[in-house]
Queue: 2 jobs
Job 1
Amino acid sequence: MSTIEAVRGDITTQRVDAIVNAANSGLLGGGGVDGAIHRAAGPRLLEECRALRAGSLRDGLPVGDAVATGAGRLPCDFVIHTVGPNRHAGQTDPADLARCFTSSLAVAREVGAASVAFPAISAGVYGWAGADVARIATEAVRADLAERGGVDLVRFVLFSEELLELFEARLAG
Ligand code: ADP
């Protein structure tokens, strides 16, 4: 059985095998959690992202897809970058957001990451309601782990008390 938990905190300090970045499709950094991850990881992370853009991801990472890099100076081994749907750009399909979680878990299995921390993807600049993100994220992760296993711990790391309560309520239900 896998453990799924929610904590309030900063994802950049999590001691897990992989943390997930709510990136944008350009992969070259941004605001919010993306900026915090790049600042804490240092320049090596950006170099790896640039290399991806110069190679297999010339057109950027599509919404809902995920890709792994190393983690620079972060206390984890991998950063898994995924791109949430941007509500302000009309990307309102919950399946796209669910796929961010399932593709990130698929990448975690590929690289052998047994513990994974997720932020509240799309709940910031990309404009999704926290309650919707909490429901979609917890349902997607639960279903995926029940079906495929292979990841021992999923930890949702929430930046606000409000988001923490929304995720906790979903996990308790
Ligand atoms: P998106 O563009 O996918 O909406 P954001 O980074 O704007 O991504 O926000 C996603 C969520 O991550 C928000 O709830 C935001 O408060 C939160 N967040 C920002 N910095 C951190 C951090 N260091 N650790 C965890 N969560 C963070």
Job 2
Amino acid sequence: MDRIAIIGGAQLNGSIPVSGAKNSAIKLMAASLLTDEPLRLTNMPRLADTRFLGKLLKRLGVEVTESDGPDGQQTLLHAAEITSGFAPYDLVRQMRASFNVLGPLVARSGQAKVSLPGGCTIGARPVDLHLQAIEALGAKIDLHEGYVYAQAPRGLKGAEITFPFVSVGATEHAMLAAVLADGVSVIHNAACEPELVDLQECLNAMGAKVEGAGTPTVTITGVARLHGATRAVIPDRIEMGTYAVAAAMAGGEVRLTNARPGLIDALLDKLKEAGAGVEQTADGCIIRRNGHRLEAVDIETAPFPGFATDLQAQFMALMTTAKGESRIRETIFENRFMHAPELMRLGADISVSGGEARVRGVEQLEGAEVMATDLRASVSLVIAGLVARGETTVSRIYHLDRGFERLEEKLGACGAQVRRIAGDGEPEL
Ligand code: EPZ
């Protein structure tokens, strides 16, 4: 398996273009199941997760064609006919969001058999709210031998769906299913993440009638059919936030481009509070730090527009060398501190108790061999490696490849000494 090696100590100076958002791209790809006409997605990131979903969609009958056009990387998805409603365990377990094909399959062809996704390293992550939504829309749901069997032979019906707490995936899933339902659906206590707005805009470009995404109440007036469309995937706010933290950690000046304002304000406020220079620009931001040590600040993760759980690990890495003690509270997932013991291998001083970690900043981290445990945890180790004395090698970086496009190239272009070592131990050419 590949590893990433980082030699710490170099400042970052330059510009990093932000890619399209993984967590939006995979939901828009699932939307292609809702129409027999082609859906063209531009600003598409090329990631392991988009490949996984492409593989599943092909199995369901979707033609998936990737190309580099005048608008950059794009993917054309054409579900002229759904040839199978079966999403097997081996494909769904590789990427949990594959579960979101269930709603579109039932909406379009009245039936589906989709594997339950199973466990996850960051928490139990059940799908009960997803099933509650699809059932409310009139599908008959049965669970057998690890599979969800959903049936709605006469189509889905508009419904009121009230989620007991906010779930990004369940809100998206309910939207994907309700667009072809007969009548009006209202989702109460909907997630407000920017990816929901992206999904609404994509569905509406395909002829759907969705309003309110980005607020806690989403209203969907069902239509009989959707048509093809072209949509650019929203910029990846988590990738943007990750490089903002990396710049604050390593020092120097980095301009993040190809993004948009308002996606990571909660993080930028915390970076300012810690003492980093932050300047918002029309298509991103500039992050600066010139030598001085950052101050410890506390964070608590929350649904959007709060501090994103997907940036918590990166911020913890940043706090390992800040002056003072930082308290980091994780409120979204119950087991999302797996990076803490790995950061401690680099010399960080961290104690974890329940949903809270206390990070006492040290003057200097030391390079070591560490292991990635999930996508965001793995990039937090790369960020720590940027300032650790000597070499840090991060193994199991298949996690990293799920969500960060050309990471070594993007950081390397700003002066970081980062290289990929191929599985046989030899550096990759
Ligand atoms: C999405 O996951 C993202 N994934 C996650 O990013 C992100 O951390 C999360 O939203 C929160 O922002 C994708 O978009 C593919 P949730 P999702 O449903 O939709 C519980 C990354 O690194 N819950 O909002 O699965 C759940 O266990 C990933 O890119 C239920 O109990 O998150 C969690 O505690 C990691 N029952 C909470 O709700 C359900 O039916 C919020 O999860 C659904 C969720």
